[in-house]
């Protein structure tokens, strides 16, 4: 069905856009237009675009991201303060529930000791220790993170030890080891988020200013340094950029490294398979999948062979993990009193039925997304299906740690670059942090009851579901897709961009809008 055919050669290299061809947010988005009023209003019709010697959209986005990351560090800094106890020893000041009252909690701080990173003789996945956990008493424990994340923590611990050695010699300022470890980790995580902003802006092509939504996201202000997820977003965003530049092998390597950091980049292979199947580009997908597997194996196989039990710890703990307080399963159980999700588990028990329900629901969502990808009147954009599959994973998973929302930020900007809508969701999602912290503080210490916290979780999930519905609507009605209204087919599509369909299932009997390839329109100035 030739609904995507154009006069352009399908496999031609993407043309570099001139500054005048870029979408100007102050012309097309009411929120961006309103934000420019203190600076003189929307860009003038005869303004010279792209002529400034330094401030390109990319550099503006990176500068805004640096400001957001600095604010995030100050927000977390309260949790690395120290005090001197009665014996004259410097201690980390977590008295009186400081991490929850100040809302500065970060996993990086407690993991320094709980993962034995403060022990100079340990190595991830090889070293073990005994610990009384929620699943078993006197349990043998190993590093519980995927390989790239685990090695990232270990390297930072060694850098912190080196810093302390220089500090003892008087060359550098000193502090508690955990504080130095946190700051070093935050430095690399900040660089990773800058890569995420850069790669997303480069992928958007005609819409580089949309990267500001990634740079200034309220979720970055709260969660950039909550855990190590910025590393995975950097690999994923860079992988999508490589795919958009028709470099499937490079994209595969980056997605493989991302999957060795967090699981979710692996889901993008399924998205690419559906789109490449429809476009008849399975050879490109095969190269990407091959290099993804090879990159993952290169990182993981040494630990599988040398420290099998330690390497398996991440998967073992995820199997044993009960439903998280942030999950819809917990909200449903709290609201209905139903304990069908394996009830109250004893130590060492596996939540078998919960794991089955999670797997079935996610696979059902993946099947539905594949159906959408193969039946839509026009092949969906990569960003649209990628957002849907990651959002489906978070909504159906038994764990939604608050920093997981960072995964959605660059994908949401690629999928649906509507500034007011995305900023509204990101503000709402970031605000969940406050009731979460006061829920963990406990009602005995003037914290919030569980119902208040779960209420905000449900509202957050409903907002994400609403975004998914809107993305699906734009897939089936391409004339409402802002990216395609500007004249693009799929900026992240790479070899998929402006290619004819080879496979399409019967289903939706619609026709693509002629406006999909129309020239960019200028919105009326508000």
Account of the 3D structure:
- With 526 residues, the chain is mainly α.
- It has 23 helices and four strands.
- The chain has one domain.
- 56% of the residues lie in helices and 2% in strands.
- The chain has a two-stranded antiparallel ribbon with strand order 1-2. It has a two-stranded antiparallel sheet with strand order 3-4.
- α3 (57-77) runs antiparallel to α7, α10 runs parallel beside α19 and α21 packs antiparallel against α22.
- The protein starts with 24 loop residues before the first helix and ends in a 41-residue tail after the last helix.
Approximate strand percentage: under 5%
Structural class: mainly alpha
Order of H and E elements? HHHEEHHEEHHHHHHHHHHHHHHHHHH
Helical content, roughly? 55-70%
How would you characterize the largest beta sheet?
Answer: 2 strands, antiparallel
Strands of the biggest beta sheet: in what spatial order? 1-2
Mean pLDDT: 85
Q: If helices are DSSP runs of H or I spanning 4 or more residues, what is the number of helices?
A: 23
- Extended strand count: 4
Question: What sort of overall outline do the alpha carbons produce when their principal axes are compared?
Answer: globular
Distance between the termini: 40 Å
């Amino acid at each position: 069905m030739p609904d995507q055919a154009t006069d352009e050669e399908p496999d031609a290299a993407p043309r570099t856009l001139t500054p005048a061809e870029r979408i100007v947010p102050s012309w097309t988005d009411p929120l961006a237009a309103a934000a420019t009023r203190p600076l003189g209003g929307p860009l003038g019709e005869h303004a010279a675009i792209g002529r400034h010697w330094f401030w390109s959209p990319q550099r503006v986005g990176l500068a805004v991201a640096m400001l957001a990351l600095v604010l995030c560090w100050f927000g977390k800094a309260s949790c690395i303060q120290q005090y001197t106890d009665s014996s004259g020893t410097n201690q980390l000041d977590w008295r009186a529930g400081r991490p929850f009252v100040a809302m500065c909690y970060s996993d990086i701080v407690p993991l320094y000791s709980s993962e034995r990173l403060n022990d100079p003789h340990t190595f991830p996945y090889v070293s073990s220790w005994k610990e009384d956990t929620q699943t078993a008493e006197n349990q043998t424990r190993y590093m519980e993170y995927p390989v790239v994340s685990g090695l990232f923590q270990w390297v930072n611990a060694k850098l912190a030890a080196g810093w302390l050695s220089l500090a003892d010699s008087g060359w550098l300022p000193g502090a508690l080891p955990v504080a130095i470890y946190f700051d070093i980790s935050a430095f690399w995580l900040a660089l990773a988020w800058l890569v995420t902003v850069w790669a997303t802006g480069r992928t958007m092509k005609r819409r580089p200013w949309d990267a500001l939504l990634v740079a200034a996201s309220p979720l970055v202000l709260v969660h950039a340094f909550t855990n190590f997820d910025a590393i995975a977003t950097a690999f994923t965003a860079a992988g999508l950029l490589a795919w958009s530049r028709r470099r499937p092998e490079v994209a595969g390597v980056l997605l493989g490294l991302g999957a060795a950091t967090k699981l979710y980049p692996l889901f993008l292979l399924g998205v690419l398979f559906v789109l490449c199947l429809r476009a008849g580009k399975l050879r490109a997908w095969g190269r990407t999948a091959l290099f993804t597997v090879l990159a993952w194996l290169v990182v993981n196989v040494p630990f599988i062979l040398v420290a099998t039990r330690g390497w398996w710890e991440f998967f073992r703990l995820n199997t044993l993990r009960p439903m998280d307080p942030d999950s819809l399963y917990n909200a449903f159980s709290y609201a209905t009193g139903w304990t069908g999700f394996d009830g109250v588990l004893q130590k060492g028990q596996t939540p078998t039925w919960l794991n089955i329900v999670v797997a079935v629901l996610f696979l059902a969502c993946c099947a539905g997304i594949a159906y959408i990808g193969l039946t839509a009147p026009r092949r969906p954009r990569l960003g649209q299906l990628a957002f849907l599959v990651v959002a489906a994973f978070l909504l159906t998973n038994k764990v939604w740690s608050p920093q997981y929302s960072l995964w959605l930020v660059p994908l949401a900007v690629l999928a649906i670059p509507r500034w007011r809508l995305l900023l509204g969701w990101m503000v709402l999602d970031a605000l969940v942090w406050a009731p979460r912290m006061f829920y963990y503080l406990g009602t005995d210490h003037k914290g919030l009851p569980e119902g208040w916290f779960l209420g905000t979780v449900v509202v957050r999930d409903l907002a994400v579901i609403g975004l998914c519905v809107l993305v699906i609507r734009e897939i089936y009605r391409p004339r409402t897709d802002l990216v395609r209204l500007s004249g693009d087919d799929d900026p992240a599509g790479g070899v998929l961009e402006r290619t004819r369909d080879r496979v399409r299932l019967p289903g939706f009997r619609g026709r693509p809008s002629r406006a999909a390839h129309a020239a960019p329109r200028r919105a009326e100035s508000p």
